[in-house]
From TrEMBL:
Alphabetically ordered keywords of this record: Cell inner membrane, Cell membrane, Membrane, Transmembrane, Transmembrane helix, Transport
Organism (species): Oceanimonas baumannii
Stated name of the protein: HAE1 family hydrophobic/amphiphilic exporter-1
Transmembrane regions listed in the UniProt entry: 12-30, 334-353, 360-380, 386-410, 431-457, 463-481, 525-543, 852-871, 878-898, 904-925, 953-975, 981-1004
Cell compartments where the protein resides: Cell inner membrane
Chief subcellular location: membrane
Keyword Cell inner membrane listed: yes
InterPro entries found in the cross-reference section: AcrB_DN_DC_subdom, Acrflvin-R
One Gene Ontology cellular component: plasma membrane
Pfam families: ACR_tran
Keyword Membrane listed: yes
GO molecular function, one term: xenobiotic transmembrane transporter activity
Length: 1029
């Protein structure tokens, strides 16, 4: 007994089954977390090693290279990159997304342990830390006040707000920008130190040894025990003034006030933070890897509101840049698209069937199938996100097909005079095989997507599994609930409405015309192979002509502006340049295009010569220009600011917000040669109008003062290289030596030389060090100084010396075109020794190309094998799969004429087309086999099958196309990705359906004349067995 037979015999059971699916599906939906995208973070482990006094070249050869050699043997490594500078090596190991972070970190520690035996003895032990790859700020909270000083405002931000926000669920860290940090400044006077015979080491030792709080044992008597504690006595400038540095004998002492100026105030730190032109303190919220962005931002906003009554007078706390605005808007847009798609599909069904009762059946079964899919999402640990919701939109056009096929065939039997019960039984049984075949075909198309690697694979795994689940449940519901509802709702010989009569008449004429045309074309079937060959040729051309990218260019409602100054640029110069850039963007604020502008210097991970701006745009329905147009205007408005390079970036859902789409890596054996190649490549690439903001991550323009220590002379005097470095570090850069307490909080005591004492190189002669005999020797007797230009760091990528060329894309120029262009430049202009690699979005794009090709090929093979097993033939599935090139042709034509790129979304849609277009071929081939088994002549069976399946084929095609229309017409947040999918589905299904109605019958007539159905083979076996008995 078949499943449909059981459902018709026990309608309550079938109804209860669907109700249970709905109940558990709704529970799963409300329990699932809500986020923008599936989790795509890759495990990242960093290894940092310090080696005081070692040059960058020594660090590279003796530390970085030896560590990289061991780390390269770890399994699951995606890439290894490193940056080496004087005294420091930093190696980043990024693993494939499927690797567990803890296990990856354990493997790295083992490799580092093995390599440590080869490192220099006096190098510090390497430090291994775990990371998650994305530390983007999701919300900026700003604090301003007219009633507090800058120091008080900074203390309040750091000690009250940052501490409170960091304790909230899902918050990983809180960046504090623009804070004026309270310190005890100790500014050394080198002349006074020289006169009194005091060195930097003397002062540092005095601070560390005297400004301490230590336990001093216990005192016990008959009644009590007392814990003795030596109190730290230095908590004010007056206290530190009286700190003794040296005893000169006969009661004479040198105090800190004799050699330094001491005051409590701001730390001499270079930092700037502004919001909408006003200096503020900013708190940047960084979420934990697995945390839900929307929930974290809501939690922080509630904390901000709760803090309002407790703010000091004349103080304002609010938020500016908010990444949840895009996410919430995008999800709302998807929900609206989902509802519109559902309404359009139901309308199409009504127009075809002309009966409200009949339309109610798919209107009920489709939501049941969609809701049921969330049960699988819950089991798999997925979330409700833009990708899974898009999967549901696409699923509407798929899951309705099963209901349509069943309903249309039941309707056909009713028209032949059968009772509703008999029509439900015969109609469902007749198409049961086709429903199961198309379901298995669709599932076999989606599941290979799970085998895709990288970030794109992680994203579309949820898409594929949810679609497969919805399709699977739709088959179950179509064979159980649909016939039960049809038996209860549909009535025989029901008088059709005027609209139904009109459409029935039109469709009858269409069937007649189609039959006549089909019969004529089948007599000349030679044209079908020619059409297939022509389609393959056009597909090959379109694959070259359609621009390709990793993801469509998204309008996320924000433009991130990177500002880069010259190497060695001072903070004052950068502050002035940032002000000019900020002023240049005022026209965009006055026009209402930019709603808020957040400015920070230095930028994240950058030096003093860097800055970053967050230009939050007004709502999508409040402006007439896209974020890409805004980025172009920002570039034009800031072109006159020549001191810095201004790089507007459109953030991506899968790319860090501060990186450009093009990251092209040149590798080689020598940095001088590499730099020559890289500069030649950049010069050539500047002629390409599609590329802008071309930058290299390596140059030799950073001003550097090379201090060469006479190690033998220093050693003979008992002076170490470390002591020389420490003294210079204090005098030139400053260093926190100890802390002091103020109102229960700890603050640094910051030791630094007077900037006026070191304006020239020969001023270092005034700095003295103490020998092992107690005498003083000036620094110029131990070191020689040399000014030079030096690279900021020596970079490796996958163990090779590397220089990265980064660039933005202009206009409609695609990432694929850019990478192919740069590959061509290297191939035509650089020697074979120059190797090419990719980073960031460029790496994901190149990896995705091969992954999609593999998945597409695997899906074709799996579909072919499943259909071969179902049809018990290798010819029938080949005929069915001939519809795939037709779908690809339609999808590519849609992309070509719409100007949409061939990206990850449109590529996945093309994989979907395999299932969408083959189901029409399955309906024709399977029914032709049935009619031949019933004794119809071959050509008659083929023609009758095509004509009888015309209505369900057109109904399913129109519903699928109708489901794609809202995606094509999508606007607002996240519309670009939906348009990519919708255009491929619309073009592919429309063209494939039109041609399938003729190509499949023609190829069936050409190839399948001598084939048989699975039932024929079974009957032959039964006959043979019967004769043998």
């Amino acid at each position: 007994m078949r499943l449909s037979d059981i459902a018709i015999a026990r309608p309550v059971l079938a109804t209860v089954l669907s109700l249970m699916l709905c109940v558990f599906g709704l529970i799963a939906f409300f329990e699932l977390p809500l986020r923008e995208m599936p989790d795509t973070t890759s495990p990242i482990v960093t290894v940092r090693t310090d080696y005081t006094g070692a040059s960058a070249s020594v660090m590279e050869s003796q530390v970085t290279k030896r560590l990289e050699d061991e780390l390269s043997g770890i399994s699951g490594v995606k890439f290894i990159s490193s940056a080496t500078s004087d005294g420091r090596s930093s190696i980043t190991v990024e693993f494939n997304p499927e690797r567990d972070l803890d296990n990856a970190a354990s493997d790295v520690r083992e490799a580092v342990s093995r390599a440590s035996r080869q490192l220099p003895d006096d190098a510090d032990a390497p430090v291994v830390t775990k990371d998650t790859g994305r530390n983007d700020v999701i919300l900026w909270v700003t604090l301003r006040s007219t009633g507090m000083s800058a120091l008080e405002l900074g203390d309040y931000a750091e000690n009250v707000l940052a501490d409170r926000f960091s304790l909230l669920d899902g918050v990983s860290s809180v960046w504090v920008g623009g804070r004026k940090e309270r310190v005890m400044n100790v500014r050394l006077n080198t002349a006074a130190m020289a006169v009194r015979g005091v060195t930097v080491a003397d002062i540092a030792a005095a601070l560390r040894s005297q400004n301490v709080e230590l336990p001093a044992g216990t005192l016990e008597n008959d009644q009590q025990n007392f814990a003795a504690r030596i109190e730290r006595g230095y908590n004010s400038a007056a206290d530190f003034n009286n700190l003794a540095i040296r005893n000169l004998g006969s009661g004479e002492r040198i105090y800190l006030r004799d050699v330094a100026e001491i005051w409590e105030g701001e730390k001499p730190e270079d930092t700037l933070f502004r919001s909408n032109g006003q200096s503020v303190v900013g708190l940047g919220i960084v979420k934990q890897t697995q945390a839900n962005t929307l929930e974290v931002i809501d939690e922080v906003k509630r904390a901000v509101q709760a803090q309002q009554p407790f703010l000091p007078d004349n103080t304002e706390l609010t938020w500016t840049y908010d990444s949840s605005v895009f996410i919430e808007s995008a999800i709302d847009e998807v929900y609206q698209t989902l509802m519109i798609t559902m309404a359009l599909v139901v309308l199409v069904i009504y127009l075809f069937l002309g009966q409200v009762r009949a339309t109610l059946i798919p209107a009920v079964t489709v939501p049941v199938s969609l809701i049921s899919a969330f049960i699988v999402a819950m089991i798999m640990g997925f979330s409700v996100n833009l990708i899974t919701l898009m999967a549901l939109i696409m699923a509407i056009g798929l899951v309705v097909d099963d209901a349509i096929v069943v309903l249309e065939n039941i309707h056909h039997h009713l028209e032949r005079g059968r009772s509703p019960l008999a029509a439900a039984w015969h109609g469902t049984r007749e198409v049961g095989f086709a429903v199961i075949a198309t379901t298995l075909t669709l599932i076999s198309v989606f599941l290979p997507i799970v085998f895709m690697g990288g970030i794109i694979g992680r994203i579309f795994t949820e898409f594929a599994v949810l679609l497969a689940a919805a399709v699977g449940f739709s088959s179950l519901v179509a064979l159980t609930l649909s016939p039960v509802m049809a038996e209860k709702l549909l009535k025989p010989a029901q008088s059709p409405s005027r609209l139904a009569r009109y459409f029935d008449g039109a469709f009858a004429r269409l069937e007649t015309g189609y039959r006549r045309l089909l019969v004529r074309e089948l007599r000349h079937g030679w044209w079908a192979p020619l059409v297939m060959v022509a389609a393959l040729g056009v597909i090959a051309v379109l694959f070259r002509e359609v621009p390709q990218s990793l993801t469509p260019e998204e309008d996320r409602g924000v433009v991130i502006v990177l500002v880069k100054g010259a190497e060695g640029a001072s903070f004052e110069r950068m502050s002035q340049a940032m002000g000019e850039v900020e002023s240049s963007l005022m026209p965009l604020r006055e026009e209402g295009i930019i709603s808020s502008l957040t400015v920070r210097t230095p930028g994240f991970g950058g030096g003093v010569n860097s800055g970053i701006m967050f230009a939050s745009l007004s709502g999508w329905d409040e402006r007439s220009v896209s974020s890409a147009v805004v980025a172009g205007r920002i570039r034009a408005l800031t072109r006159h600011v020549t001191e810095v390079l201004v790089i507007p970036i459109l953030p991506s859902s899968i790319r860090s917000g501060s990186s450009t789409p093009v990251e092209f890596v040149l590798g080689g054996a020598d940095y001088d040669q590499l730099l020559e190649w890289a500069e030649q490549l950049r010069t050539l690439a500047r002629d390409n109008p599609g590329l802008s903001d071309l930058e290299l991550d390596f140059d030799r323009t950073k001003p550097e003062l090379l201090v060469q220590v006479d190690k033998q002379r220093a050693a003979s005097l008992g002076i170490s290289v470390t002591e020389v470095a420490d003294s210079l570090n204090v005098m030139l850069g400053g260093q926190a030596m100890t802390t002091y307490s103020r109102q229960g909080e700890e603050y640094d005591v910051f030791l630094k030389g007077d900037e006026n004492d070191f304006g020239r190189l020969d001023d270092l002669a005034s700095l003295y060090l103490r020998t092992n005999g107690g005498d003083l020797v000036s620094l110029d007797n131990l070191v020689s100084l040399q000014e030079q230009g030096a690279p900021g760091s020596l970079n490796h990528y996958n163990r090779k010396k590397a220089i990265t060329l980064s660039a933005n894309l202009e206009g409609s120029y695609s990432l694929g075109e850019a990478l192919d262009y740069l590959d061509g430049l290297v191939r035509d202009n650089l020697p074979d020794a120059a190797t090419v690699d990719y980073k960031g979005e460029s790496l994901e794009y190149r990896s995705n190309q091969s992954d999609v090709a593999f998945v597409f090929g695997l899906a074709l093979v799996v579909v072919f094998l499943i259909l071969a097993a179902q049809f018990e033939s290798f010819v029938h599935p080949f005929i069915v799969l001939l519809t795939v090139p037709l779908g690809l042709l339609g999808g590519l034509l849609g992309l070509y004429f719409s100007g949409i790129t061939l990206n990850a979304y449109s590529q996945i849609a093309m994989v979907m087309l395999i299932g969408l277009v083959t189901k029409n071929g399955i309906l024709i081939v399977e029914f032709a086999n049935q009619l031949r088994d019933k004794g119809l002549e071959f050509d008659e069976a083929l023609t009758e099958a095509a004509v009888r399946r015309l209505r369900p084929i057109l109904m399913t095609a129109f519903t699928t196309v109708a489901g794609a229309v809202p995606l094509i017409l999508a606007s607002g947040a996240g519309a670009e990705s939906r348009q990519s999918v919708g255009m491929v589905v619309f073009g592919g299904v429309a063209l494939a359906t039109l041609l399938t109605l003729f190509i499949v019958p023609a190829m069936y007539r050409m190839l399948a004349r001598h084939t048989r159905s699975p039932e024929h083979q079974q009957r032959r076996l039964d006959a043979v067995l019967h004769e043998s008995d």
